[in-house]
Amino acid sequence: MSKKTLIAPSVLASDFSKLGDEVEAVAAAGADWIHLDVMDGHFVPNITFGPPVIKAIRNRTKAFFDCHLMIAPADPYLAAFAEAGCDGMTVHAEAGPHLARSLQTIR
């Protein structure tokens, strides 16, 4: 018996002025999840978007939002990302001093 492979395209290279349309197109193409790369300019050198943008595009699809938080520290923002519509979150173990607490908060 084989496991189903989940497809989770990133929208990082999207035209951010049309991000809602891009998310709809990715979901319509058959993606299981939408991968959202969140970058803060500190943990990684690039800056992308935060909870307000995720909240703004959440109503464009029912697809699972896989939020990859490349931010440090992540803990102060976990609730805001959950409230914005992230269905799952990936955090980096080295991005904060209390990984166990971060994981418990996400759960």
Question: Could you outline the blueprint of secondary structure elements for this entry?
Answer:
Elements: H1 19-28, E1 33-39, H2 51-58, E2 64-70, H3 78-84, E3 88-91, H4 99-106
Parallel strand pairs: 1-2, 2-3
Helix pairs in contact: 2-3
How would you characterize this protein structure?
Helix 3 (78-84) links the parallel strand 2 and strand 3 (88-91). Helix 2 runs parallel beside helix 3. It is globular and about 40 Å long. It is an alpha/beta fold and 107 residues long. It has a 3-stranded parallel β-sheet with strand order 1-2-3. Helices cover 31% and strands 17% of the residues. It has helices at 19-28, 51-58, 78-84, 99-106, and strands at 33-39, 64-70, 88-91. The chain has one domain: Aldolase class I (TIM Barrel).
